[in-house]
Amino acid sequence: MKAALKGIGYGGGPEIKLKFYVVNAKVNLAQAKLAGLELPQPTQSIGKNSLKYTKEWKEREKMIHQFLNQYRDAVEKNLNDTKENLRKLKEQDEVLGR
Hints:
mainly alpha; two-stranded antiparallel sheet; 2 helices; rod-shaped
């Protein structure tokens, strides 16, 4: 994300300029990529083997699939939170710029 330090800010320190449209475009791109992500269900093509190993393999694949779905949900929530924070920062900048 791009932020530029410029001169002296309101409190005497460096001013950080938010490039809203650049950051927002990158968040939108990340959301689009996330929406296009497909996680297929674990395959059941092991056949009718009833070995302990194949049972554990299937359980592990199912667990990994659940973890990936949880991770995707967390990333989606973080992106939504980031968009909301960007919107609030933009509003604050507009109020301070008046």
